[in-house]
């Protein structure tokens, strides 16, 4: 798991970070940051590595700066590919961000 308060400032991201789901190319994924989340797509998989590319997330609601956010997602080939490695605590990249496999979600924390 991401360590709450040191690797993540979000209880939701903390709970979602311990994911050891086996990815498949084309699956949705969510990159778990400090408090934000970014939608992505799995583009390459090996036994211990998962390569993902962020999706284009377009805000689909009119809620402004609120906790209630909805998005539509589309592939974005212009984004770079990020590498995540499978650890005993789930999928992690070199920055320490976690990865949730099988679910796309974008979330922007307006409180920072």
Helix content: under 10%
Q: Give start-end ranges of low-pLDDT stretches.
A: none
Determine the structural class based on helices, strands and strand pairing: mainly beta
- Taken from the alpha-carbon principal axes, the silhouette is globular
| Beta strand count | 8
The total domain count is: 1
In terms of DSSP E residues, the strand content is 35-45%
Sketch the topology as an H/E string, one letter per element. Answer: HEEEEEEEE
What would you report as the Rg, rounded to the nearest angstrom?
A: 14 Å
Question: Biggest sheet, in brief?
Answer: 6 strands, antiparallel, barrel
Mean pLDDT: 88
Question: What labels describe this entry?
Answer:
single chain, 112 residues, mainly beta, 6-stranded antiparallel beta barrel, two-stranded antiparallel ribbon, 8 strands, 5% helix, 38% strand, globular
Give a brief outline of the structure.
The protein has 112 residues and is mainly beta. The protein has one helix at residues 11-16, and strands at 28-32, 37-45, 49-54, 56-59, 71-74, 81-87, 90-92, 98-101. It is built from one helix and eight strands.
What does this entry look like structurally?
With about 110 residues, the protein is mainly β. It has one domain (about 10-100). Helix content is about 5%, strand content about 40%. The chain is built from one helix and eight strands; from the N terminus they run H-E-E-E-E-E-E-E-E. The protein has one helix spanning about 10-15, and strands at about 30, 35-45, 50-55, 55-60, 70-75, 80-85, 90, 100. The strands form two sheets. It has a six-stranded antiparallel barrel. Strands 4-5 form a two-stranded antiparallel ribbon. Strand 7 and strand 8 (about 100) form a beta hairpin. The longest helix is centred in the first third of the chain and has 6 residues, at about 10-15. The two termini are about 25 Å apart.
């Amino acid at each position: 798991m991401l360590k709450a308060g040191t690797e993540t400032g979000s209880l939701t991201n903390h709970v979602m970070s311990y994911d050891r789901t086996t990815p498949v190319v084309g699956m949705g994924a969510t990159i778990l940051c400090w408090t934000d989340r970014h939608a992505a797509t799995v583009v390459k998989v090996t036994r211990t590595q998962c390569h993902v590319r962020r999706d284009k997330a377009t805000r689909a609601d009119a809620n402004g700066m609120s906790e209630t956010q909805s998005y539509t997602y589309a592939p974005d080939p212009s984004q770079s590919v990020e590498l995540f490695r499978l650890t005993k605590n789930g999928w992690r990249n070199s920055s320490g961000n976690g990865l949730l496999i099988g679910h796309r979600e974008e979330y922007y924390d307006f409180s920072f």
